[in-house]
């Protein structure tokens, strides 16, 4: 797929396949094209070229059908600034034809003690859990998370990853973007490295690390060598 904004070629050519039931990460520098790629897959923006199929649905031709099947937790926004957790759940549930039992989601994410709190006043970790709860309302097959752990403390990150792993164990597919390479290495099944709008590598963290000349490499080294384009005299 391809997408340009006026003169900026945000996505110059990315072709990828995400498997059912995996945690798949999009990584790359700021401005590499991760969000644009996710937004095209989610049917939020129209690609200039290319075809996108999500869970058997053509994202370009059936955006309404797609919306019913995917869950989206975007970066913390001011969208629900003046709303309580329980109100946000009710509002978002009204967007869907069919929803899961909301109480079940509340229990799963431990949100019960926070239902009467304003979303804005919650800590970052609880705001992210609220976003995730909203993303789960329509019982989606695939869940999109844009930098889910950015700005969270280590405990909140750990807990959020436990929830994400649990979703995978339930058979959900997770597509996320992140700048935290240790999280990719520890938790993600595969990742796509995007550089300047192009897909430069796509594999398991383990296989990407094996490409490094150094035996004790990590995903941080992969990032520096491949995503940031350093280490090759560039
Ligand atoms: N709505 C828009 N209008 C104009 N240019 C845009 C728009 N959205 C993104 N861009 C540009 O497209 C390029 C890719 O942006 P994108 O947000 O997809 O990158 P990213 O990899 O998600 O970055 P980050 O890690 O900072 O979130 C950037 O040069 C950005 O400035």
Automatic annotation (TrEMBL):
Classification via SMART domains: AAA (SM00382)
Gene Ontology molecular functions: ATP binding
Domain of life: Bacteria
SUPFAM superfamilies, alphabetized: P-loop containing nucleoside triphosphate hydrolases (SSF52540)
UniProt keywords, alphabetically: ATP-binding, Nucleotide-binding, Transport
Record keyword ATP-binding present: yes
One Pfam family here: ABC_tran
Record-linked Gene3D superfamilies: P-loop containing nucleotide triphosphate hydrolases
CDD domains in UniProt: ABC_DR_subfamily_A
Family: Belongs to the ABC transporter superfamily.
Designated name of the protein: ABC transporter ATP-binding protein
Origin organism lineage: Bacteria, Bacillati, Bacillota, Bacilli, Bacillales
């Amino acid at each position: 797929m391809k997408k340009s904004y006026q003169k900026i070629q945000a996505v110059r050519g990315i072709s990828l396949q995400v498997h059912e039931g995996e945690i798949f990460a999009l990584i790359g520098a700021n401005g590499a094209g991760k969000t644009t790629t996710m937004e095209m897959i989610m049917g939020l923006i129209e690609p200039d070229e290319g075809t996108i199929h999500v869970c058997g649905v053509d994202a370009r031709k059936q955006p309404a059908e797609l919306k019913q099947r995917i869950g989206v937790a975007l970066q913390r926004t001011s969208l629900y600034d003046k709303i309580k957790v329980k109100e946000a759940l009710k509002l978002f549930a009204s967007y869907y034809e069919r929803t899961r039992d909301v109480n079940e989601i509340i229990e799963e994410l431990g949100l019960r003690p926070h239902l009467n709190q304003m979303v804005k006043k919650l800590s970052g970790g609880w705001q992210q859990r609220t976003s995730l709860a909203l993303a789960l309302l329509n019982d989606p097959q695939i869940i999109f998370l844009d930098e889910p752990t950015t700005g969270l403390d280590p405990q909140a990150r750990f807990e959020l990853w436990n929830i994400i792993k649990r979703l995978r164990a339930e058979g959900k597919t997770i597509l996320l973007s992140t700048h935290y390479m240790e999280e990719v290495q520890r938790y993600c099944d595969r990742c796509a490295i995007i550089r300047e709008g192009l897909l430069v590598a796509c594999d398991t963290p383990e296989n990407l690390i094996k490409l490094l000349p150094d035996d004790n490499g990590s995903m941080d080294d992969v990032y520096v060598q491949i995503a940031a384009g350093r280490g090759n005299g560039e």
